[in-house]
Amino acid sequence: MNTPENAPLPTGALTLEAARRLAEREGCTVTPTWCGMCGPRSNCAIYAFAKEGRLLRVAGMAEAPQNRGGLCCKAHAAPQWVYSPDRLAAPLRRTGRRGEGKFAPISWEEALDRIARALKEQKEKFGPESLAILSPARRDYSEYLYRFLVAHGSPNYAHSGICAMQMTFAFHYTVGARPVPDCRNADVILVWGKQPVYSGPPLGGASALADARARNARIYAIKPSLEADGAYATDWVPVRPGTDAALALAMLHVVCGEERIDRDFVQTWCYGYERLAEHVRRFTPEWAERVCGVPAAQIAEMARTYAATPRAAIDFGNGLEHAPSAGDALRAIAMLMAVTGHLDRPGCNLLGKPRFDRPSPRSVHIKGRYTRDWVNNIVGPEFPRAFQPFLEGTSACYYRIFQNVLEEKPVIHAIIAPGTQPSVSTRDPRGVLRALEKVDFYAVFDTHRTADMAWADIVLPALTPYEIDHPFLERGPLLMARRRAADPVGQGRSMQQIFLDLGVAMGYGEEFWHGDMEACMNWQLEPLGLTMRDLRAQPLGLRAPACERQYERYAETFTAQSSRLDGGPWLEQGKVALYNTLFEAAGFSPLPEWREPAESLTGTPDLAQSRPFILSDYHTTRCFSAGWQRNVPDLRRLMPFPMLHIHPESAAALGIEDGDEVELRSPHGVVRARAELWPGIRKDTVMMAHGWWQGCAEMNLPDLPLLDGGANVNLLYSPDDKAISDPLISAMGSQTLVSIRKIREN
């Protein structure tokens, strides 16, 4: 394209040609690479602009098939995050008491040696299972954490219990796969427990809803509060937090009781329908209305509309994973899809993601070494041992690692936290901090100062994704190298390189390519006949052609081999498990049940007399991801303070106006927030964002207390593991009852 020298500069998403032209005009460099500002993994391809090695700005890559040039506000704030005053620039050794935050810089050699020495001593004294690594959200380096644990001999990869794996487990053991909604072809869409606009990268979910609305699709938003997605919904189903299982069971009551089922599919591909139909007879819409707060007539109407519409899909989200009956809700939703015939058909929920005609790169995980003894050594399993390992590997429950440390004779003596902050990421922050005081060894690996870094013995500085040239990423049809767009800050290393180097320091060099990252990636790419040098020569990566979508692949999906040690199928009868004999044999209910949240209006009515509001939380907002990014000025300006969504009528009854500072008190703690009057929320419910602690130096905003008086919502939830957790999938409830009072006017 020939462009006049004085042509306007391009804006928004850019092509490679436009990006190069802009870089030449501005006297800087442009690098095709991947964004690193949200999760669970890098998903959006970008052009990163830098000058003299310093990141200046980013633009969406128009050619990328997944984000198609779309970026969120977090992506554009990347330079401020990279150069934040909170960046960690050198390895640190604690010199003061735990929690005091006093450190001295040390060399990488000394830091790795201190960590290796501690882990070796504990391995010899207590066994390899004495080490736990805390899982971050799924990251591009997650499999390196698994590899290190396997090489070391520990099964204790501590996963959150609140994200992704819970729903994946429930769906695999009900319908054999995690079904994907075909929203672009659906006439009815149930958006259930999900925020499709803000809760993830811009990969087409919001545009699919907008397209559906434009063609007059019926869209139900099933959630306690509405945000931007409310603009697309035709119907709001304002379910109380933590009661989705009651709603789903009532819908099954309607569908089965009125025989609004796909009888041919049920007879051919479902096991246990008669027992399910009998089981759900007691879960009437009238019963559910009392529990979940949705009118019985609306429950029945939604169930009938979904069942009667040939092209109907359920777009489910992370909100469903936060309740003691989370597994039951997810299983019941999967059963709704099955008995109505809405599985693996156009416009419904499809079994499996699109496939592409390309071999898969090798994983750095070492899954072939799992044994029964290995599974038996898991501390506080996330899933029952009978169902371990699950897809990603063996997993302990994140929260239970800290409970174990506090026992008189703990198994866990060392904890590594790479890219995760336990004091603001899981329940019972008081217990977490007590455990960090007690544990023999605690190490933090991160890009920035973290909430609980002050308790660490050793801190290692990690580089951001903009400062490294690995790993390569595969997203849908696109295989593309990550490229270094800016010079590294300080002495940091990539998280992948840190674990390779630690592996070498431990004496596991053969398992870690002797610390050679390039050799590692070339080994991964061997099945494709590529090297990293080949891949880097492709500025836009390599695209694989899509395989033709095959529908109704029931025989293939329902007989697929599981990840369990015994290698048996996910579905014992080769059919949808409406009645789950595998769960029954392991001592769990074969049918979905109802369990009240630990504290709720209907479950604990006496408590509700003094604390009349249900409180729950958002894990991601329009400008923040979980417990990070509050130190980025451009993002913090969008939400300078912790905000509490409260209905205007509920606020007025308490004398609260928009912007007033309020105090929330549960039976377990006290936090503060600013009231934001929010018409799109239930009147008996309030919600605030998870993860608040971070200050923002550029805006003179200090850190908030981790415990009482701050805004750490986890402090408000019950610390009783048995009361808050799903017995099968360890999902932790995000519900409590609170009182609210104004403490300062706006």
Strand and helix layout:
Elements: H1 16-26, E1 29-34, E2 45-51, E3 54-60, H2 73-76, H3 78-82, E4 92-94, E5 103-105, H4 108-126, E6 131-134, H5 142-152, E7 157-159, H6 165-175, E8 179-181, E9 188-192, H7 205-214, E10 218-222, E11 235-237, H8 244-257, H9 263-269, E12 270-271, H10 273-279, H11 285-292, H12 296-308, E13 312-316, H13 326-339, E14 349-351, H14 372-376, E15 396-397, H15 398-405, E16 414-418, H16 422-425, H17 429-438, E17 441-446, E18 458-461, E19 472-475, E20 478-481, H18 495-505, H19 517-525, H20 532-536, E21 542-543, H21 554-558, E22 576-577, H22 581-585, H23 605-610, E23 613-618, H24 633-636, E24 643-646, H25 648-653, E25 661-665, E26 670-677, E27 685-689, H26 721-724, E28 736-744
Parallel strand pairs: 6-7, 6-16, 7-15, 9-10, 9-13, 10-11, 12-22, 16-17, 17-18, 23-27, 24-26
Antiparallel strand pairs: 1-2, 2-3, 4-5, 4-18, 8-14, 19-20, 20-21, 23-28, 24-27, 25-26, 25-28
Helix pairs in contact: 5-18, 6-13, 8-11, 8-12, 8-13, 11-12, 15-17
